[in-house]
Write a structure and sequence with these properties.
The protein has about 140 residues and is an alpha/beta fold. It contains five helices and five strands; from the N terminus they run βαβαβαβαβα. The longest helix is centred in the first third of the chain and has 16 residues. It is globular.
Length: about 140
């Protein structure tokens, strides 16, 4: 089973967090695709190749785990979620942020309704991944 780990990567804190998420996924027995690890450093000449590689990573995964922290979901992460949803991939959203924007939703309704599961802590993630496949959402 392969998991695409999605989330913002624009500063050291975001990269540290997404790498921590990836470690939990890997320690739970899954192979992972991590965009900033599994692509060359971005430059003006390889943007299209990175896009194609990330898209292929989603095509080939069995599950997407996405960090949704922040006041809004990162735009690249939102695209990855939409693409995965259109392909019928199960998606687990991870939202550990205590800030709230909505009374009846944790994140934007379009994101939230695309998720198979939403977890609120890293500790909940291994059980959530197991439950996705136990519930018959295998690819």
């Amino acid at each position: 089973m392969r998991v695409y780990v999605a989330g913002p990567l624009f500063d050291e804190g975001e990269r540290w967090w997404i790498e921590k998420v990836e470690q939990v996924v890997e320690q739970s027995g899954f192979a992972t695709f991590l965009p900033h690890r599994d692509n060359p450093p971005k430059d003006q000449h390889n943007v299209a190749a990175i896009f194609a590689n990330d898209r292929r990573g989603i095509d080939e995964c069995d599950l997407v785990v996405a960090s949704l922290n922040g006041l809004t979901t990162d735009d690249g992460t939102a695209w990855e979620l939409g693409y995965a949803f259109a392909l019928g991939k199960p998606i687990i959203g991870l939202y550990t942020d205590w800030r709230r924007r909505f009374d009846d939703e944790v994140v934007n309704l379009m994101i939230e309704c695309s998720l198979t599961l939403l977890v609120r802590s890293l500790d909940e993630l291994p059980a959530a991944m197991r439950s996705v496949f136990a519930d018959g959402a295998t690819p």
